[in-house]
Design goal:
By secondary structure, the chain is α/β, with parallel strands linked by helices. The protein is 42% helix and 23% strand. The strands form three sheets. It has a five-stranded parallel beta sheet with strand order 2-1-3-4-5, sandwiched between helices. A hairpin with a 3-residue loop joins β10 and β11. α2 packs parallel to α3 and α6 crosses α8. It starts with a strand and ends with a strand.
């Protein structure tokens, strides 16, 4: 099967270099110079992977990533010239899968792309996530705590998976708000607190604790 790549990069030489390299590996590549062009391509085509520049005119990569995640789970790699931990955390909170920092090696970028595709292709296999006394069937979206079923609304389910996939990492209310409600949400950050309160109550005592980190946000601690 031919892999299809979306490259969103406003630097013409970089866009051309990535396009040529992946085309030489028998990929079908379509390119956009900004987020608006990318959304038009996404509306008309399906892709297996997206490479997004962070700093772009009209719509930056973070905003574009949030919009893509509203409708698609395709792997996303950010391409950035800025090496800031806050940017990386924001990217991961929005649903990015990986980062490469300019300047970078095209073979390394390609290797990251192939690793993400391999991971994505395994989603059809029976997958179970276990943490503390929780067991989650990722295919069926079912949860058990010590064998008893746990019923969660879709948003709380997504938040639980996100925390379990990033144990020990602190995420601010703003990062969680962007990740789960997008940049366009104009409500209060308290919605995050309310959802986490409900999530804590639903999972109960299970060895997985969503801790409040004062003045910072939240993190998941999984007890052995």
């Amino acid at each position: 099967m031919t892999q299809k790549l979306l490259v969103v990069e406003n630097a013409p030489l970089m866009q051309e270099a990535i396009t040529d390299y992946f085309t030489s590996k028998s990929w079908q590549v379509q390119a956009a110079a900004n987020g608006e062009e990318a959304l038009e391509l996404l509306a008309r085509n399906s892709f297996h992977l997206a490479l997004l520049d962070v700093m772009m005119p009209k719509m930056n990569g973070f905003t574009l990533c949030g919009k893509i995640r509203e409708t698609s789970d395709i792997p996303i790699i950010f391409i950035t010239a800025r090496v800031l931990e806050e940017d990386e955390l924001n990217g991961y909170a929005l649903g990015a899968d990986d980062y490469v920092t300019k300047p970078f090696s095209l073979p390394v970028l390609y290797a990251k792309a192939m690793a993400l595709l391999k991971r994505a292709s395994s989603t059809g296999i029976d997958q179970r996530l276990r943490a503390g006394s929780l067991e989650i069937d990722l295919n069926a979206h079912q949860i058990w705590n010590q064998g008893a079923p746990v019923h969660l609304p879709p948003k709380e389910y997504e938040m639980l998976l996100f925390f379990l996939e990033n144990p020990g990492r602190i995420f601010s209310r703003e990062q969680l708000l962007i990740r789960f409600w997008s940049y366009e949400f104009d409500g209060s950050e308290r919605v995050v607190d309310n959802r986490i309160k409900k999530l804590r109550k639903a999972i109960g005592a299970c060895g997985c604790v969503i801790q409040t980190v004062r003045k910072c946000g939240y993190r998941m601690e999984v007890k052995p």
